[in-house]
Amino acid sequence: MDYTDRCRRISNAFYNVGLEKARIRDLTGAAQCLKKSLHLDKYNTDARNLLGLIYYETGETAEALVQWVISSNLQPQGNRAIHYLTEIQGHPGLLEEEGVHIRKYNQAVQYAQTDNPDLAILQLLRVVEHKPNYIKAHMLLALLYIGREDYTKAGKSLYKVLQIDKNNPRASWYMSIAKSHTSRGEVEKRKLLTAFSHRQMEDDDVILPPTYKETTGWLTIIHIAVGLFMGAAVIFFLVMPAREKQLGETHNQELNQVLEQVSQRNMEIDRLEADKEALQTERDEAAAQLQTMLNENGGVLSQYQQLIAILQAYRADDFQTAVELYADLDASAIADEGTQVIVADIQRDMAANGYQVLEELGNRARDAGNPDLALEFYQKSLNINQENPQVLYDIAMIYQARGDEEQANQLFGQVIVNYPDSEAAGLAREARGY
Amino acid sequence: MIDFEQELERFKPSLEIDQVEDAVMNMDLTDMTDILMKMMEESQERKE
């Protein structure tokens, strides 16, 4: 066996040791073995690739790249390092980000070595936040905490280091110092003492858990009862109030929604009621107007019909009918200007000739023994011409015949006073007994 | 006990990403095999 083969075998042995150490996360020990392996045989690709992996795992990305690049150059074919490099190149932002964190670490080292520990700690905290496997950053952070006698925080950083690299000698040393300044060390010592204080176990020994106790049947029942009671109490005091509160809130929410809906409906109903009342009023007004138009006695339409009947009576030379119809005409209801001219002509004719006809009709009715009809005709005659003492006298006579002396005397007095020289005034005086 | 200043001096800046190329170029890859081969060559030359 020549020297080359021997070197290669020894190199391979160191690689195997390094691999075993890496598997149990003794990364520092593994790295040392792998470096020795590579000193013996630089072509040991597995050793170089594993060393790169260890660098990468401890946050030394640039060192890892160096090893993988050399490895891929020494063995361009069938080399796992090419896969690693391809993976990293597949994430372009990754290298840039790693570079930023490494620069921050280097800056922190500079701060720490130039009496700026506060700035260094701030910088390192940012670095480990984004790069939690960066062992060197954790180590420097721990050292700075130890320098400030903040051993608890130092211990936390060192704990992370030892999780990544279990046998890191410097981290273990820092950790022992940190523990010696905190209660953690005492606790671990006590655990160690109690752990090895028992006598050697024999075959007949039975391990009883410290919580084990002999229980009787009654004790079991009591335990169950206490458990049930405590369970019920928990439900009553913890679960039920929360549940009731939740149900109450849900109920209130639903109630508020319903009340809001009811309120909206009420508002809608009020609005519709108001609309209904307004429409009802409008309808009543329209109905009243229509009724006024259609009213037989005083309605506008009926007055126009009455006027047409009068004109027809004129055309038929039936003056008596025209006079009777005119007596019932309400001329004020006729608003049309053209028609008002016709009405005015009729009014003039009636004022000159119409009232006598009605008086005559009244006389006939009176003579025929129909005083009511006579009274009606007399009244219509007066409506056309109020200055007619004979008609007033005739009306008074009808009232006197009916026994209405007061009304009769009033009319007699009216004739005597207003028309003293008339024939009717003489008759009235006789009727009053003057 | 820790000598804080001495410990601090042990921390060196990490290799940065943009220094990888220089590091590869300047890496001394001489291994034990190279040294032995060189020693054997020198020994051979002396014999001659």
Q: Which chains make the largest contact?
A: A-B, 39 and 28 residues
Could you give the distance between the termini of chain A?
187 Å
CATH superfamily of the largest domain in chain A: Tetratricopeptide repeat domain
Taken from the alpha-carbon principal axes, the silhouette of chain B is elongated
Task: Note the main sheet of chain B.
Answer: none
Structural class of chain B: mainly alpha
Shape of chain A: rod-shaped
How would you characterize the largest beta sheet of chain A?
Answer: none
Broad CATH class of the largest domain in chain A: Mainly Alpha
- The average pLDDT of chain A is 88
Subunit arrangement of the protein: heterodimer
CATH topology heading of the largest domain in chain A: Serine Threonine Protein Phosphatase 5, Tetratricopeptide repeat
Structure write-up:
The complex is a heterodimer of chains A (434) and B (48). Chain A is rod-shaped and about 180 Å long. Chain A contains 19 helices and no strands. By secondary structure, chain A is an all-alpha fold. Chain A folds into four domains: 88 residues, Tetratricopeptide repeat domain (Serine Threonine Protein Phosphatase 5, Tetratricopeptide repeat); 91 residues, Serine Threonine Protein Phosphatase 5, Tetratricopeptide repeat (Alpha Horseshoe); 68 residues; 133 residues, Tetratricopeptide repeat domain (Serine Threonine Protein Phosphatase 5, Tetratricopeptide repeat, Alpha Horseshoe), CATH 1.25.40.10. Chain A starts with a helix and ends with a helix. Chain B has one domain. Chain B is elongated. Helix content of chain B is 62%, strand content 0%. The termini of chain B are far apart. The interface between A and B is medium-sized, with 39 and 28 residues.
